[in-house]
Amino acid sequence: KIEEIVKTFQGVAEAYAFQAGRDVRVVVSPEEVDDDALTVLAHDIAKKLEKEAEYAGQIKVTAIREVRATDTTAAK
Question: N- to C-terminal Cα distance for the chain?
C-alpha cells in the first residue's frame, strides 16, 4: 500500500518500503525532477502517507535522484 501511494507522484520511477514500512526509498527520474523539487517531493510524499497510509510510528521518506556521467579515454 505504501509503495502504491508513493508511485502516484509524477517523476517517481521506483519505490521501496523497508523496515516494516517505516523507511521508504523513492528513486526519481532525473529528467522529470530537479534538485530543488526533490525536497518538496519528499515532503509531499510524507504528507500524503500521513493522510492515506495505515502505519504505526513514523515513516522516513528518502528521495534519491541520481545522474551518472561516464567518459572513456582514447586507446593508445
Answer: 54
CATH code matching the domain that covers 2-64, chosen among 2.102.10.10, 3.30.300.30, 3.40.525.10, 3.30.2130.10: 3.30.300.30
pTM to 2 decimal places: 0.84
8 and 51 in contact (C-beta within 8 Å)? no
**Per-residue model confidence as pLDDT tens digits over 18-51:** 988 889 999 999 999 999 999 999 999 999 999 9
**How many other C-beta atoms are found inside a 10 Å radius of the C-beta of residue 47?**
11
Distances in Å between the alpha carbon of 51 and those of 2, 45, 54?
11, 10, 9
